[in-house]
Amino acid sequence: MYLPQLPLSSNYHLYVQGDVRIDPSAVISSGVILQADPDSTIIISANVCIGTGSILHADQGTLEVEVGANLGAGVLIVGQGKIGAHACIGSLTTIYNGSIEPRQVIPSASLLGDTGRQIATVSSVTTNTASIEIPKTPESSTTTTQSESIEPESIQSESINGQVTSTSVVVSEDAIKPDATTEVKVKSSTSEVGISVYGQGSLDRILKTLFPYNQSLNSPPPSE
């Protein structure tokens, strides 16, 4: 605990005012103030020791320090009360309208006394926060609708054991176009091969008659 240093004082006198009764055997240090207001009394009993710079101020009653009590330096006692016999009050202690039991030890820099005055406690203020719902933007709703509308087509295929399994296949237009083009080309080439020329047989017979020696070289392919 931090204890401030007592200021040095060049005043070696004892200040007494009002109805103050001091026993001759009491030891009072320099710079002590003993002040009793009207209709009030201070009583310092035998073998009492009061440290430097202590202040005893009696107000509206009697302030008594009993036999053998010890008050440290810088003690402040205000109001009315009693310091019990052989009690020890630490330095820089403040007592306001209070009493100390006999042989009780009070630590330094303590604050004792009347607690009748209460400080009003500030009541905690609670604030209700209203919840605000943020509406969805049109972009997010459009994206969600598009993603939900796209569904893969289900194609059923028969396995070797005769069990039907469903396979999810997504067919794009880019994948269909090359296959369609290839299929058209194959069909056209096949149709071109199967076309026969009208009058081909008559022309072959005329050529055989005119050029019989070229028959083996230019013989037409056998008809199926």
Automatic annotation (TrEMBL):
<feature type="region of interest" description="Disordered">
    <location>
        <begin position="134"/>
        <end position="162"/>
    </location>
</feature>
<protein>
    <submittedName>
        <fullName>Carbon dioxide concentrating mechanism protein</fullName>
    </submittedName>
</protein>
<dbReference type="GO" id="GO:0031470">
    <property type="term" value="C:carboxysome"/>
</dbReference>
<feature type="compositionally biased region" description="Low complexity">
    <location>
        <begin position="134"/>
        <end position="159"/>
    </location>
</feature>
<dbReference type="GO" id="GO:0043886">
    <property type="term" value="F:structural constituent of carboxysome shell"/>
</dbReference>
<dbReference type="InterPro" id="IPR011004">
    <property type="entry name" value="Trimer_LpxA-like_sf"/>
</dbReference>
